Structure formats: C-alpha cells, structure tokens
Amino acid sequence: MFDANTYTQRRQQLKQQLGGGLILLLGNEEASMNYKDNWYPFYQDSTFRYYFGLDLADLTGILDIDRDEVILFGPEQSMDDVIWMGALPSLASLAEQVGVSKVLPTEKIANYIASAKSLHFLPPYRPEHLLKLQAWTGKTVLEPSLPLIQAVVAQRSIKSEEEIQEIERAVNYTARMHRNVMQFAREGMKEHEVASEALRYAESTGNLLSFPIICTTQGQILHNHYRGNTLRQGDMLLLDAGIQTPAGYAGDMTRTFPVGPTFTGRQRELYQVVLETHEAAMAALKPGILYKDVHLLACRKLTDGLKQVGLMRGDTEEAVQAGAHTMFFQCGLGHMMGMDVHDMENLGEQYVGYTPELRKSTEFGLKSLRLGRALESGFVLTVEPGIYIIPELIDMRRNDKVTQQFINFEKLDTYRDFGGIRIEDDLLITENGSRILGEPLDRTLAEVEAIRQQAL
Ligand code: GLY
Ligand code: MN
C-alpha cells in the first residue's frame, strides 16, 4: 500500500475530472469455490484498490463530488470474524490509513445514494456487483457511466513514479522466476512439475502469480492450461508467467527454450524470426505512435522472416493486408499492464485500448489486438510476438485462394507438429521512446542455449 496522500490525490484528480455527481466504487467480496466458506484466494477490485488502497473484502467507496465528501462503507468485524479470521483494525482506522475520515456501515449505502443527482459506477464484471447495484438503486437495468470509465482509464493508464517502481519490482521477480525455470526443467519431467517451480518461486518470495501459469510443450495453443505432457528431447517449452507483488502490480513475461541443450535447426530459424520481430517492435515504441501500427510493423517483420525460411512468399505488404500472416500469428502484439496483467480490461477493451476514432477491428488477428491507440509517456505495456503452427488452422485455410498465394503449404505441412514460440517483455513508454522494465532476462538464441547448457 502507498502513503495515504497517494490515495487522497488520486481521488481528488478523479473528482476534478468528473466535475459533479456521486462516484460509487465497489470493492470485491470473497468468492466461493464449491461451498460458501471455501474461498478462492481473495482478489480486490483493482480500481477500488487504486483509489482506496485496502486489500480487504466487502468494502465500498463513495466520492460524493456535490457534497464534497469521501466515505468508506463496510462492515465492522463480528466476533465470529475475529475467531475465524483474526482481529483487524476498526473500519475507521483502516480508512485513516488511506486518507478517508468518514466511515458508515454498508446498510446505509442505499439511503446515501438515493439523493444523488447523478450516480457514476463502472461496468459490473461479477454477478454480485450487479446484485448490489440493483439492490442499492432499486433498478434492474443499469447503465455504467462512460465519463467515469474514461476518467479512470485516463488516470490509471499513466503510471506514476511509485507505480513504475512497483511494476519494475514485479518484473524483476518475474524475470528471476523465469530464469529459475529455465535452469530447472529437465527431459522426462511433466509440464506440471516445471510449472510448480514457478509457483514455488512466486510464493517463496512472498508474491502471487498475476495469472495462471502457461507452461507447455504445445506452445501453439495460445492460452494452454493443460500441464500433463512429458518434456522430450527436441521439444521446446513455452513459459508465460508473471508475478504480482503484494501491492497488486503485475509482471508478464514469456520465454521459449529447448528441453535439450540446443534448439533444433528448424526451431532456431523460427526463433530468430520471432526474436527479430520482438526487437523491431520494441524499437518502434514511442509516444504518439499507434500501437496498431507497431503491431502491423511486427506482422510485416514476421512475414519477411517467414519468407526467408520459405514458409511464406509474395509481397510482404500485400500478404499482411490480406491477413495471410495470421496463419502463424493469430493474436495481438501486446496489451496494457499495471495492477491487472491485462490492465483495466474489465472497463472495456474499446475504452482502454482504442478511441472513438479508432475502433477495434473485427478481422481475424486484429480482433485479438487489445491495444491499438496512440502511446503516451507513462504507459506500461507488453510486446509479445509469436509463431504458432496450428494444424487445424492449416487444414481450414488450405483451399483459401488468398492464403494459397502467400503460404507455402507444401513446406508448412512438414511443420504441423512444430508447436509455438513466444517472446514477451514489459516496457514503459518514456518521453522519447521506451525502456524495457526489469533485470535483463536471457533472450537471444546463444543466451538461451547457454543457460540450458549450464543447467544440464
Ligand atoms: N500472459 C498472458 C496474456 O498476455 O494473455
Ligand atoms: Mn501478456
């Protein structure tokens, strides 16, 4: 948690931005897995945490701009809570830690908001958010506030110095977690044994994971959560994993490395294509550039590389315009990152990654690009190009005339069991360009092979 002033200033900025009305910010409740008292690990709503700091369940914040007051609503602990969960400070002293001087019991919310001239709230993404909003407002159909969404996105998109330090801490831990796994993995292990080393590292350092680990020899499945395969000589292992610090800031990195001491010839060729695409995309980052244009630049670079390998052919620009490269790269180049690994996605991708003038495309490939808009100094984002060879997609597009023009299917058919490669780093947009966050993590062919050779 930051100093109380941080939260006071953040709330002040939001109030000024909205100008009037009542802002209702819902904290999260505990969520039950399979019966009421068996909970998933608690996850606080990130916007509530951004403005109110507290990482505890059942809290609600109100910024009443018209009455010029900020109130934290919540329960006082019962003796049962104390017995099962341990004693906490009173609601008033929790509020004081984040610069709030007025507290009220949750039951008073409905009365308090009844007199508001305009009520601003964010899109509910959990069923209980909707139920609470319906109960408190007495309405069944509820319209989230676009001005509030826009103000929160504008504020949370620009990371402050103390946030950048915290994100960098998360990325440092993330890089160390990856290095550990790169040294730990051995032929004959199951993917879940390798993933457990990442989890052990995260928990042994007092941190959390920022999303469920992707640890797979089947890297072509973009979000593969199956971990039952055995690591074999000749396989590559793709690890996409990130650490979240106790303050709630995320890291998100991916490395792909050989199970043996070296990549095979084919793996080496395609790894180099992804690496050069990753470097070209990172080099293009600067304030003012559309991230969509960085994505398209990456698609062209990837296509050039695939042409050299002999998997694609024809004019690069035309191939990318026709979407032929999506045979290999089906997703977007990256996303915003901060308190959430896909920062603020619950507020709507259109508002976080796009603008009214630049709407998200519905085309295959571009529809999965979560960030398209012009970059600004203070943004934190990922760059994560990849090559994914998906046999089902090859078969689906085999008779597509446009694809036939640009894809060498004869050669591609010999790569059906190749798998996938992704390389991902986290970057801060600076005044003049960008900076990779965190300690350097081995990335080139030589570096990755060296770490494997030393380990084996
Ligand atoms: N690292 C997971 C993702 O970006 O979707
Ligand atoms: Mn990512």
Automatic annotation (TrEMBL):
One Pfam family of this chain: AMP_N
Top-rank taxon, per record: Bacteria
Enzyme class (EC, first level): hydrolase
UniProt entry tagged with the keyword Metal-binding: yes
Cofactor(s) this protein cannot do without: Mn(2+)
InterPro entries attached to this UniProt entry: Aminopep_P_N, Creatin/AminoP/Spt16_N, Creatinase/aminopeptidase-like, Pept_M24, X-Pro_dipept-like
All copies of domain Aminopeptidase P N-terminal, residue ranges: 2-130
Keyword set, alphabetical order: Aminopeptidase, Hydrolase, Manganese, Metal-binding, Protease
Enzyme Commission code: 3.4.11.9
Family label: Belongs to the peptidase M24B family.
The protein's name: Xaa-Pro aminopeptidase
